[in-house]
Amino acid sequence: MSRNQRPPGPSGLPLIGSMPKYGLNPFKYRKKWAEKYGDLVYVDGGVGRDGYILGSPELFEQVLVEDDSKYQRPREYREVFREGIGASEGEFWQQQRDMIQPAFYPQRIKAYAEQMQTATEDLVEGWSDGETRDIEKQMKDLTLDVFARTAFGIENVGDYPAIRDACNAIGAKTSASNQVFPGWFPTPANRQFDRAQKRLDETLDQIIQSGADDDTLLSVMIDAEADDGHQMSTETLRNEMITLLFAGHETTALVLTYAFHLLSRNEDKRQKFFDEIDEVIDDDGLSPANVQGLDYTNKVIKEVLRLRAPGHTIFREPSEPVNINGYEVTEGSVLFLPVWLIHHSEEYYDDPMTFRPERWDGTLEQDLPKYAYIPFGAGPHRCVGERFAKMELRIMLPTIAQQFKLDYVGENPLEFKDGLAAQPKNEMLMDITAR
Questions:
Q1: Does the pLDDT value for residue 255 go beyond 50?
Q2: Yes or no: domain 3-434 corresponds to CATH 1.10.1040.10
Q3: Does pTM top 0.90 for this prediction?
């Protein structure tokens, strides 16, 4: 395929192409290049992989739904999650998905709700009026605590430092700047990940081999059987727990962090949020019954997931040559499907960069094109833990807000660093005021 047969895109430098430039600020260049070149942008990979940025819901549907079988997750996913459902494909992926899905049935999610609330109350019990805390760190501690309780039955995740270290290493490993290099290349991020992965493997093997408490995610997966009677090996269980660890801990913590940040910058929205919580939640606290009455809170969460979806970009790699918008895309290229680009588009959202939960009052969600709002992905690989994450958000956000007001005092403007999840570059410092 000659260069003039490729989609339009930015010019690159000899040998290194445009990918290193892209890696410096993926959020900036995805938007800039999409505005300049259109819905399909070619990113010169130099001697590495060519890249393509897809910028429309229709192209998302083609790749994630219609032609899903022609794609796989990129090599970085496979290096991190190995044969877990976060990276596997085909019959094995489907078998694993079917075996894991019962752990996230609605009745089980309701059973986890009490642990989510207990963990949240335990966290804020240590807060004091007038202090300043890094809320991103606090929320990551909270969601990791919940994951340890619901997945393993572990009450003190601090006894297992390898779990937290691995989450940090995954973020660095999957940053855009590190994707220029293969997994074997000794970048600092790759070396950090290799060390953290080894320690995490040993820790998870120890937890799995010691057995699991009843009604934990791990116990459900240990007992799960495929149609042919197959059960998961220790290695397979470990791979699946790594996937669920990152997806179930990092992303929810970031949504909570960005929710408190956006509410602190929009006092009228925050007051409306507080008014609903004070009216709906009684002195006994949140319950499965009254959480359903938090209508405005749910709109706040929906709007945060639009503006700050942690899964800012979905990545795919063709496993065979494919045709996209009339262009042949070769096997092994990397496709960038930037969720933020669609979620922030004036074509689909009025005043898209403004935090406005009220936009979800009417029929917006029904009127949007398919795949114009996909904070949990789309197609067969849509996030298996979506219900779990939504329950966490609906419990943790109002439980904290019932007791405290959080005001952001960190650096402005807020900037983000790239990885599998969109994380803030600097500390998310917030003043804590008792309500």
A1: yes
A2: no
A3: yes
